[in-house]
Design a protein that fits this description.
Blueprint: E1 8-12, H1 18-27, E2 31-35, H2 40-46, E3 50-51, H3 55-58, E4 64-67, H4 74-83, E5 87-91, H5 98-111, E6 115-118, H6 125-135, E7 142-152, H7 162-165, H8 167-184, E8 187-199, E9 202-213, E10 218-226, E11 233-240, E12 243-248, H9 278-292, H10 300-319, E13 323-324, H11 334-338
Parallel strand pairs: 1-2, 1-4, 2-3, 4-5, 5-6, 7-10
Antiparallel strand pairs: 7-11, 8-9, 8-13, 9-10, 11-12
Helix pairs in contact: 1-9, 4-5, 5-10, 8-10
Length: 341
């Protein structure tokens, strides 16, 4: 039996999210090359990877790049990778603005390379099962959905600089904005509110976003960046004309504690094991498509849609007004994205 050659993968960035991307690629036998302004040598040593001193040095060594750098750098790096003929995996959000995200999608299509926004929540079993149940008509017509996501606030200051990260809405809540659009379809109106606080030098944030879908469904999305010992948790409730789907990641805990920070509690990311990690499942899906063609669970167009929703929510927060979206604002169907392949 012939085994495919290992993919040559360039991991760009070595921050916190590298702790789930790098082991996923490693577990799939990829030949990793790391390029990062900080921490690249240590990450490469941990996973038996090599390093590249610059992007120009990286391009000839790889077939695929995985961009896990701060949000404001995504567009520039993705466009450079596409110009170099590389397939692109890019952490969410695909770009800081919807215009940039659309440019990335168009460039990948024109260059004939694959583009995968890393909306990993689509690969968490509970969320994937909910989507499948809705698609199968198990709960009838979706009417109201509620999504919640809470974690310790990220430590790096750039997350709280909206010009760089888009704030909690663009960085954290984009996961559930994507879920809302995935479950209930195109959005026509967005209304949002947000609060950011700094108590004793500790910054926290929360936001709530209400989406009105063209189907008539309503989605409520709530996100929190909290104190350092706040455990990661997420939940959803999707109510339809014939039933309700519920999930709460915290409900498995017999006792819930919120104690002062120690290395064992709190967290910005959910705890995962590489063998069952949704991040590994996500990358396996992308590898399958790169090797065999077809469509992944998430497309470049989905990445654009999520950024547009987050932009609209941030606009509503700034203005206090409901933001109307054209019924045609969604990017072209994923099938069009694959038409040239």
């Amino acid at each position: 039996m012939n085994h495919p050659e290992p993919l040559r993968v360039g991991l760009i960035g070595a921050g916190g999210i590298a702790g789930v991307h790098a082991p996923a690629w490693h577990s799939l036998g990829a030949d990793l090359v790391v390029h990062s302004l900080h921490g690249g040598d240590a990450l490469a040593q941990q996973y038996g990877a090599s390093t590249a001193a610059s992007l120009d040095d990286l391009w000839p060594q790889v077939d695929v790049v995985d961009i896990i750098t701060p949000t404001a750098t995504h567009a520039e790096i993705a466009l450079a990778a596409i110009a170099a003929g590389k397939h692109v995996v890019c952490e969410k959000p695909l770009a800081r603005t919807a215009a940039q995200a659309q440019q990335i999608v168009d460039s990948a299509r024109n260059a004939g390379v694959r583009l995968f926004p890393a909306h990993v929540v689509r690969y968490f079993p509970a969320y994937a099962a909910a989507y499948a149940a809705v698609q199968a008509g198990r709960i009838g017509q979706v009417a109201v959905s509620r999504f919640r996501r809470m974690s310790a606030a990220p430590a790096a200051p750039w997350f709280f600089d909206e010009a760089v990260s888009g704030g909690i809405v663009m960085d954290q809540m984009i996961h559930d904005l994507d879920q809302a659009a995935w479950i209930s379809g195109a959005v026509t109106e967005v209304f949002a509110r947000s609060i950011t606080r700094a108590d004793d030098g500790v910054r926290t944030a929360s936001a709530t976003v209400t989406l009105t879908h063209s189907s008539g469904a309503i989605s409520h999305v709530y996100g929190v960046w909290g104190h350092a010992h706040l455990p990661f948790s997420s939940s959803f409730e999707i109510a339809g004309s014939e039933g309700v789907l519920r999930h709460d990641s915290a409900r498995d805990d017999a006792v819930r504690l919120a104690l002062p920070p120690t290395p064992e509690v709190g967290g910005y990311l959910p705890a995962v094991d590489v063998s069952t990690s949704p991040y590994t499942a996500e990358i396996e899906d992308f590898v399958r498509v790169i090797r065999a063609g077809g469509s992944a669970q998430v497309s470049g167009n989905d990445g654009v849609t999520a950024v547009r929703l987050a932009e609209a929510a941030n606009e509503s927060i700034r203005t206090g007004a409901v933001v109307a979206l054209s019924a045609t604002f969604d990017a072209a169907p994923a099938e069009a994205e694959e038409a040239h392949r």
